[in-house]
User: What shape does this take?
Amino acid sequence: MSLAHRIIPCLDTDGPRVVKGVHFAGLRDAGDPVALASRYNEEGADELVVLDVAASRDRRPTFLETIRRVAAELSIPLTAGGGIRTLEDGRAVVRAGADKVTINTAAVERPELISELSREFGAQAVVLAIDAKRNGNHWDVMVRGGRESANRDAIEWANRGVEMGAGEILLTSVDRDGTQAGFETELTAAISKAVSVPVIASGGAKLPEHFVQVFKEGAADAALAASIFHDGVQPIRALKEFLRTTGIEVRLPC
Amino acid sequence: MKVTIIDYGAGNVPSVERALRRLGAEAERTNSAETIASAEALLLPGVGHYAALVRALDEQQMREPLVGALERGVPFLGICLGLQVLFESSAESPKLHGLNLMPGKVCALPSTVKLPHMGWNQIASNGESRLLDGIDSSAYFYFAHSYAAPDSNGSTTATCFHGSRFAAVVENHNIYGVQFHPEKSGDSGFRLLGNFLRIAA
Assistant: This one.
């Protein structure tokens, strides 16, 4: 009996639709967020993340409406983010039905945002998203969708974020994102060992073996992926059944 | 069956309400002392900081009618902080008083493990739980907390382990509490809420 490793599908939304190829390739339609959320809830996803990739002010009402409709389908936790810059933005997302709020660039620019959200909703509701890119023998924090370096060490920033009140780290390898070459286990292990909170690994997932690696070698508490789930290339239930055969503790719903 | 949900602003109120309605119960939200005093069944969801819950109960004069209802035998289910507040106090805000309906103090989970205890874990039942009736013993429930109630309080019917053993389910006559979030725990959580509705009916 111990905490199960979590499998988390991620819906990147632009307006009312889920899109793929966020960071590098051109955006491509991948379906209806509510239909996908409902499918993942049934298939045994442990949580769901919804990210507004456009994150423009005029699209905000559409995003909040998406959260409301997705939340209504779920009996698992929901994390939402993308463009959250203020406590007010966080409140709107929580009121719409998110259990956790994820923040990225805005937290790098103004770390107090982490403590403001943490005081209001509790550390368990604040997910600090870090996009990291290898630079020699360390990793740089990247901002604005992975395009710009924040000139900050990822391990140092993760520790600072936890001190400020983040209850979880969503760690994306910018080098691996979209490559389907597997998670960057070295980065994941470095962050996971450095911080006292759970770490969600993201970027590069394709094969079931990639998940085994990131849990066993990367010491990840959870793993996140998008397109392999949307495309049906990797059904969640089959993935979890495979992980269980390798001795990794997962929740298999009946 | 109408369940009165004590709404002090916790984020999980809508999902609890939705789950109850899906189970065929009527659900109303309240922060009014009168509504609590006349409730058929009470549910206290909670997430976030212990102090926010205790302060809301006191500032909105909900403590007295709530304790009164529980002492009269009104069925009650506390979720997460809603379980923790049943005890004497919590190390998260040591100066504040809990409802003191169960003996013991809520403590921080040990820092030898990752905190918050976040995600799906299994629980060990003593076989006498009414809330867990018909739920597979290997079922997982969703937890998100850093503080927990002692498992040795006489009312614990199931425990969980994360760095140390703690109370996952408490039951004493009409008073029920769960440390995990049944409203976020898929089918197992849904069944548990159904059991509470049957007990309360």
Summary: The first strand of chain B starts at residue 2 and ends at 6. Residues 2-200 of chain B form a domain with the Rossmann fold fold (CATH 3.40.50.880). The interface with chain A takes residues 11-12, 14-15, 18-19, 47-49, 111, 114-124, 136, 140, 142, 144-146, 160-162, 181, 183-187, 189-190 of chain B (CB under 8 Å). The radius of gyration of chain B is 15 Å.
